[in-house]
Amino acid sequence: MKRFQLFIRGISTNWTGTVGVALTTSAFILFVFFELLQIAGILTNSYVGLISYMALPAIFLIGLIMVPIGWWQFRRATGRSTSELLTQRFPDDMTKAKRIGSSLLATIALLTLVNILFIGIGGARMLHFMDTPEFCGTACHSVMEPEWVAYQNSPHAHVACVECHVGEGAGALLDAKLNGLWQVVSVTFDLYERPIPTPVHQLRPARETCEKCHWPDKFYGDRIKTYAKYAMDEESTASHTTLALKVGSGQEEGTIHWHVSESNEVTYQTADEQRMQMEWVEVHKGDQVNRYTNRKPFPVDTNSEGDATEPPAARKMDCVDCHNRATHIYQDPEAAVNKALADGRINRALPFAKKVALGALLGNYGTDKDAALQSIDDGVRGHYMRGDDDLNRKVTGLLPDIDKMVSAVQEIYRQNIFPIMNVGWNAYPSHLGHQGQAGCFRCHNADMVDEGGQAIPYDCTLCHSILAMDSESQFQYLLPLSKEDPDRKMHQYLRDEFLGQPGPGLPDEPTAETGEALPDQ
């Protein structure tokens, strides 16, 4: 220890060298200290990683650089040679030559080895930390907060960000780190867009990411999915839409995953960077190629000089063309309220529960999110406790449900609205399905036609059978036909389409199979 103290005193030649020694030593000690605390489970905050694996190694390197600079300044100021300064600054027993070199040389070699190990371990730990979701989501807190919150509430919350956003190999790692440096510059000088654009052109191919877990052959058959919807009336009356999604493995034509099967290839050209407007679509099946062109004209995009810009490159369709919000999912406000009612987080026994909840969500609250959450609380409670005798009677005994409703509405707002980043309702549209956005209808519409004028099929039952549509029963179209039902023809058609064969008609109507009327039942 005494020899180490003498060495430190010897290289602390001036203020530059002294500061360098102080920075290097303190950074090393703090790094070891933080590592021990994290191993012991005492420190778990992700921001500690920013200090341990980024700030401290940087301080350590700055200190190392300052030490030889200080020595160089000291030598110039004294006008003496290095050997003379060594004799002056260090005791004779440290500079005296021995069979394997002086003890000063051994000390320098030992500390150099320690420095190399520290930089190597610190660098490896830094790279590992930079690959964690906590770093991606919290290093630039206000900028990445919307994506971080959405990620934590997503089906892929246990999948690291780098599994989808960084490719394999040194080249992909280098590209990711260079892109990260630009993001640091953007945050530092406030150069980023609000909201952050979806990086559709930087995502890795789905076959390298999604299909490591979700390969098309893994899926088969249909998937039944029911969507509950509630009216704006006093009872928040429920209705149901049930679909039998024709997922398929991709081998069967007429199934959803046919679009990404290896035996097919669907390519398209868009007119915009957001991939919302299709110029043409090509379907390759073996040697057969069918091309569909959009007969609607698109405005020509121009740059600042007024020249036409190059359209986006043609793209081969893969998973993310439909599942574009597989992880960073933002809810539609009405859909979010419907789900809260279906889950029981909002009690339908509260009068006008759907109307009150949706009204609270859609208020104009400005940019203060905390004030918005308080306004939601005040709005919901104010509606149910405004002194109306009839309303008071109806909510008697439901005060805990009002508390739950406030919490549910606030949580929906908290997870979807980020005023600082200009993220409001439906800022990031989903292409899954076609509710509220184009989705499937970007390609499947009457304007995408081939040379003969034949459009890409867009029939409702192409990708899903319809078992109920805003109906009282979840399987309305599987129930027996009724003469009083004005939609009985559609009812019969959708039932038969799902069953794959004609079913029984009404007693006084001929069946599709025999053309004869059924006996009275």
What is the domain total for the residues? 4
Q: Count the DSSP helices.
A: 16
Shape: elongated
Largest sheet, in brief, is: 5 strands, antiparallel
Rg calculated over all Cα atoms: 33 Å
**Total number of β-strand segments?**
8
Low-confidence stretches: 512-521
| Structural classification | alpha+beta
> Percent helix among the residues?
40-55%
Amino-to-carboxy terminus distance:
102 Å
Strands ordered across the widest β-sheet? 6-3-4-5-7
What percentage of amino acids are in beta strands?
5-15%
Notes on the protein architecture:
The chain is of the alpha+beta class and 521 residues long. The protein folds into four domains: 2-130; 134-192, no CATH class; 225-326 and 433-479, no CATH class; 333-421, no CATH class. Helices cover 43% and strands 9% of the residues. It is built from 16 helices and eight strands. It has helices spanning 2-11, 15-39, 46-78, 82-89, 92-95, 103-130, 133-138, 141-152, 162-165, 170-188, 333-343, 353-361, 369-384, 389-395, 399-416, 488-499, and strands at residues 223-230, 238-245, 265-270, 278-285, 288-294, 315-316, 448-449, 464-471. The strands form two sheets. It has a five-stranded antiparallel beta sheet, with no helix packed on it. Helix 12 (353-361) packs antiparallel against helix 13 and helix 12 runs parallel beside helix 15. The longest helix has 33 residues, at 46-78. It is elongated and about 110 Å long. The model is unreliable at 512-521 (pLDDT under 50).
